[in-house]
């Protein structure tokens, strides 16, 4: 697991027994440590032994950081472990490890198979938009063979008490198919290899990883490989995109540059951008080295897919991940921008800040002078080294004391506030707060009124001088929804008819809005039977004089010099796309990575 960077490993048919293991007893994890590069690496193993049978049992081995994300563990003794991981942004990853009994022993395990199917059905039927599922294990049935789903001929119990062969296994697969779960290895490999070989060298495909539809986009690759231990089953792997997890894709097992990202966030917020002016030359050099090292690490870790399109997708994803990892490792400086910062006038923003300051000051005084504290005086720390006091003096300098029925002496503040004049000081602060509230309300009202008058006048002016902006403003509205639960229309006999049938209303509405504004007969309508008018004939004549090598030049491969020239001409200070990779970053990519991009383009 350390060498292959595996963070969650399922083991089935562990042959462990424990008569005390019942569904109501919570499974406990056992920790064990390894030392690599003078560092302790901790894993946790969760055993689910069978109470009665030795030829069963399932276990999970989990890395330390994933273990910290565990929210709940549920199980069916000896057959199923369900681990729920919680991540930030409400993301939930449910991993179910299952070992279904062989079909030949279904009769002896009827109750176990029933409980597994019921558990699966209940779990999948629960609605949760944040829930993503991985269901993996040894299912002892090939889901891609014919007749692996239930039919009308399959029965659970007939008159003789007979259970149709593989009924519960088929029911299990049918439930997964009804919820559109996919074999992830089959998605990345059109003809996946076998997963099991018996002593007679007969092979089969019975070990599978199913994923929910909302998790497929987060996967990078999946494959079947030989396990590094002696076993009759092979190892099935699936890799998830680092964007699914928060924090970012941290390599918390191996000692690689990724470990620097441990405490860094994954991506920029919507109001943040990188401050390229403050990035030093040394940081750009480190960035180039980190990017290439990260790319090599990711590309060497996973096998290369045979499908060309999948190869392009995975390679590009590695490039994006490597760039993000390098940025997070180096720690590019960030600028935060508040889009709503300057919506109000400067005077209103000053009043809002003063209002917030006075409110907090009053709250602090009320909290300090209480019967519980009985403080005699407030130390100078209350004014934060006179900073608060200086700000209070600045606020008072803009207020006429007579307007508050006060004198100039009331605005003289001492560095020390004693309990003797606490009440008088509090009353003055309350009057100042009421004054600021009134000023803020008046300024906000005037600002809003002036803003409304401005747009009304602009709309009037646009009606005469700028109709384009007027129409854009009018059309820039959220469309109103109409409810069509009843409809009066003309039928084929041109008779007014009333209907409340949903399907009929939908059909008529689609036909109406598809043909609204349509003109069946018009001299301007196109008629393919009529030849083009004479004045248009020359426009549609084939172009002559095209050079013979024009098509050849279009088929020529892009050279590295052309790519570098195009990147050099890219504009700066432009908004980045969804992956937050701007042109400034692309211009700093190392030459090795440009060659990889060039291979994708060609």
Automatic annotation (TrEMBL):
Molecular function (GO) terms listed? catalytic activity
Q: Which residues are in the Endonuclease/exonuclease/phosphatase domain?
A: 8-216
Task: Provide the protein name.
Answer: Endonuclease/exonuclease/phosphatase domain-containing protein
UniProt xrefs under SUPFAM superfamilies:
DNase I-like
Q: What are the boundaries of the signal sequence?
A: none
What is the species listed in this Swiss-Prot or TrEMBL entry?
Answer: Rhizophagus irregularis (strain DAOM 197198w)
Cited InterPro entries: Endo/exonu/phosph_ase_sf, Endo/exonuclease/phosphatase
Superkingdom assignment: Eukaryota
